[in-house]
Amino acid sequence: MLRLRRVEPSEALIRDRAGYHDRLIFHTPEWLAFVAECQGAEPVLATVHDGYTPVGHFTGLITRKYGLRILGSPMAGWTTSYVGFNLRPDVPRRAALEALMPFAFTELGCAHLEIRDRGLTEADLGGLGLRWDAAPTAVIDVRPDEDALFGAMASACRRNIRKAAKSGVVVEEVSGDPAFAGEFYDQLRDVFAKQNLVPTYSVERVKSLIRHLEPSGRILLLRARDADGRSIATAVLPWYHRTMYFWGGASYREHQHLRPNETLIWHALRWARERGVTEFDFVGGNAYKQKYGTVEVPVPWARRSKSPLVARLRDAAKQGFALRQRTAAKLAGARSGS
Fold first, then answer.
1. Is pLDDT above 90 for 85?
2. 90, 96, 122, 240: which has the fewest Cβ within 10 Å?
3. What is the CATH number of domain 138-283?
4. Which has the closest alpha carbon to 217: 248, 244, 197?
5. For position 334, what pLDDT does the model report?
């Protein structure tokens, strides 16, 4: 029977966690520091034990809502795709998830738990009092050669990449540029405005992500310029171990006919492949991503509350956030039109 034991961070612990085959950037100290800063959350590290033998690790963060302690691994809205466990290959993820329940609700005293683990499947979740949503993501295997990667894209996507090149669009790899976060965010606001929405986070989150990840070299920042040298699109792409993630991309609507977005993705795929990355994760399964030759991978987002009241509060908070976003978008539209 597995059990979890909370531990404090140490150099030895970090080295051990970095040796697991299922490690993700979201388990790293840099990413946890980013989330902790943006969410005012408390990191939680635990070792998973089978008897006296350590067989893995758990990562999460505790935040407070309505005066209640909530354990997120991760929580929706953290712009963090997955967290969960690092486990030895012979350790069943369901068994680790079962051991997480008393750890979260009894030892940590939390009222609510959410988890999205890259290795969990819906078959692992039944019978544990969990509710979950299907939350598929779209991925590309970047191990094939460049010709094969390019050929796997839809013909229209390939044409758009060629069109961008003929139109003089060039891609820059950005490093140490304090203006990049603001530039990305301005373009992001333009993307959301197209749908009468506003971004779900502030520019400070973008700055925090770059500040925490850039020193380790675990983030690729890209900028596309048109033939006149104007910045027309940007992309933020954390990467670690075997995976690169499409954390965010944005472009100005007036320049989208030059197809800079497809060009940024194509540059990122080749860059990742050259550095031994084997998977590109779009962090979501929207239909438009299929043109890049993606494969859909199911990754359920599970949650459990200590009481039905807490579950209702969680659902009400989610609905309230969506309402605030719509209201903010209407106010922004009214200001821009005045």
1. yes
2. 90
3. 3.40.630.30
4. 244
5. 47
Strands (E), 149-298: 170-174, 219-225, 231-240, 243-245, 248-251, 279-281, 295-297
Please give the average per-residue pLDDT across 34-53, as a whole number.
98
| pLDDT for 156 | 97
Tell me the C-alpha distance between 248 and 199, whole Å. Answer: 11
CA dist., res. 40 & res. 19, Å (int): 28
Q: Looking at residue 79, what DSSP letter applies?
A: S
Amino acid identity of residue 336, one-letter, is S
Place of tokens 């229209």: 156
Residue by residue, DSSP assigns 305-322 as ESSHHHHHHHHHHHHHHH
The helix/strand/coil state of 106 is helix
pLDDT at 319: 58
Only one residue has tokens 């891609």, namely 171
**Amino acid (one-letter) located at 117:** D
Cβ pair 184, 210 in contact under 8 A:
no
Q: What was the pLDDT predicted at 66?
A: 84
Query: Fold identical between 2-132 and 138-283?
Result: yes
| Residue whose C-alpha is closest to residue 220's, from 194, 200, 199, 240 | 240
In words, the CATH class of domain 2-132 is: alpha beta
State the SS3 of 37-76.
Answer: HHHCCEEEEEEEEECCEEEEEEEEEEEEECCEEEEEECCC
Output the six-digit token pair for 278: 């084997």
Where in the chain are the domains?
Answer: 2-132, 138-283, 307-338
Q: Per the structure block, which two tokens stand in for 110?
A: 């939390």
Instruction: Tell me which residue has tokens 């350590």.
Output: 54
Report the mean per-residue pLDDT for the chain.
93
